[in-house]
Amino acid sequence: MGVDIPEGAIFYGKPRRRQPVEFTKELRAETVATARALHQLIQEGITPPAEYEQKKCSACSLLEICMPQPHRSVAAYLKEVFREATS
Ligand code: SF4
Q1: How far apart are CA 38 and CA 34, in angstroms?
Q2: Ligand 1 mean position to 38 CA, how many Å?
Q3: To bridge 76 with a disulfide, which of 38, 43, 50, 72 should be the other Cys (CB 3.0-4.6 Å)?
Q4: pLDDT (average), residues 8-22
Q5: Ligand 1 centroid vs 39 CA: distance in angstroms?
Q6: What is the domain range of residue 33?
Q7: In terms of domains, do 61 and 83 share one?
Q8: Is 66 a pocket residue for ligand 1 (Cβ < 6 Å)?
């Protein structure tokens, strides 16, 4: 009584682009492994740090909430703000 679902799609909101995804045997196995790892993180109460990837993050709608770039020091932040204010 199973239903064969050979593919799905990811819709990227900002560029408004639809990317088809073939549900291969390997992708299904990776998805199950990732779900198990996620369940383990939740059970352990661990939130891993976000990892910035230019290609993915620059088009991600969560970028301003996620803030995956390494945090700058306060001194570097103030230096940049001062430079912008005086230029
Ligand atoms: S901004 Fe955050 S959620 Fe979005 S792709 Fe980057 S790391 Fe992932």
Answers
A1: 6
A2: 16
A3: 72
A4: 92
A5: 19
A6: 1-48
A7: yes
A8: yes
